[in-house]
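ok so for the tutorial part 2 we go from a plain amino acid sequence to predicted structure tokens. step 1 is just haveing the sequence, like this:
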Amino acid sequence: MQYYVYILASKRNGTLYIGSTSGLIARTWQHKNKVVEGFTKKYEVNKLVYYEIAETQEAAALREKQLKKWNRAWKIRLIEEKNPEWRDLYEDIL
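step 2 — the prediction. this is what the tokens look like for a chain of 94 residues:
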């Protein structure tokens, strides 16, 4: 099984959310369709702008915690290295 660490954005340079999951497609769909109450629903953070694969759930959780501690400029640089246009990657993973 693969695990993922992902970053959602409300728009380019907008509000960011970092999470981890074993089901990236399903989890992104939940954010997009506002299924779960909370931060992403309240701030309309639903564009998948970055993700990476982790080998284990523990590795994904550790990376998620690491990224959450990063300053905003580092997070933006990480996104723009792989996704300079801030495209919504959801269609790519379907």
